[in-house]
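Hi Y.,

Following your request, here is the sequence exactly as I used it, all 461 residues.
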Amino acid sequence: MLKHSASDSIDLGEACGRALVGAFDGGALTSDAGVVLLGGADRAIGMIDKLARCFTDGRDPDLVVHTLPTLLGQRVLGICLGYEDLNDHDQIRRDPVLGAVLGKIEATRADCAPLSGKSTLQRLEHAPASGEERYHKITHDPRAIEDLFVTLYLDAHKKAPGEIILDLDATDDPIHGDQEGRFFHGYYGGYCYLPLYIFAGRDLLCAKLRKSNIDGAAGALEEIERIVTLIRGRWPGVKIILRADSGFCRDALMSWCEDAKVDYVFGLARNARLEAKISAALEEAREEHEKTKAPARVFRDFMWSTKDSWSRRRRVVGKAEWTRGEANPRFVVTSLKRDAWAARALYEDLYCARGEMENRIKECQLDLFADRTSAATMKANQLRLWFASFAYTLITALRRIALHDTALANATCGSIRLKLLKIGARVTISLRRIKIAMANAFPWAEPWRLAAARLQAAAPA
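Below is the corresponding structure, written out as tokens. Let me know if you'd prefer a different format.
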């Protein structure tokens, strides 16, 4: 096999009347220069250090090369940068900017890279409950990790808001192997997990991995009770509204909300009795639709109870809609009073806005690989889901702190990665400084510069 030095020229033909050549002699380069912005966001909220406190390191301190904060930071930042697999870390473990952000630009030992490879990260990610296994000495506290999402949300506000809306939803997480907890789901038409998500606006408060052979609302009451307790511990006077589709319309959850003074608006599955209740409104909508040829909506507001599944009568809003030549009735049940929310506004302005949560879930799954649950055990897959969720939380912090009033204020995680994080740069390391030289023609230079300044200002003294 021929051997070449890094500076050997590679003939690439001609361009513009000149010889076109290449060589691997560019020096220290990176394709992820924007990771310094993520490092600034982490300094502002202290997420990685707080996450590290949720873990226990049982390794021999004299033999530890990569500390817990470095391992966790590398895994979460890697997801933010688009590295979904642990195998990717065998390459990026030598990235000079990622190393600088994590405080490791030089290897601790001659036979090691500055950052960890896939094997060490795998031992972190597959952390067992006991920590007694020979190669798995790092354990974690699931409850502490779950509570950290809420703590980070609370810390992001300088003062308590008057009202918050918590959105609940379940989604499918397809399974393509023989993972623990594998079940077929008839609605989604395949083997999958059924994770539960809870958001407050853009902020992620819960990402709970669940088997799919359960009711869609299973465990929601326990998660809401935990989250509401944490929120009211900090903001005792805040008004809380729960919002979800009909999969969460369960008497136990609604009764708990009524007792805990938490309002709710849930979708209500339609049936023959409910449709009969708004039959006159449907006829009115049909007549209007036939006159105008446009979709027609008529709303009805009434008290309702099921035959045996509800413990009390509740307010229901019915949407009698006629569109495309057919009826399209829909219903919601709520604890909100008529004088605060009229029927049409309750449905169109409050309930329908819950659809925005689906975009947040898509960001987590499509941009940040939250559905990469291919480990053998549910425990390891839950940890993977949390790492992806912390990556989402970090980019959300970057968006909130540094990108407000910019063209990227509402950009998705994928767009932020493409425009601000995946940047090629030359890295020069001297005794006094580390310089990251980015291209003169970088199109997002001004938003990037502004974001960096805002993150510096937000960093704790």
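The chain has a mean pLDDT of 94.

Thanks again,
Q.
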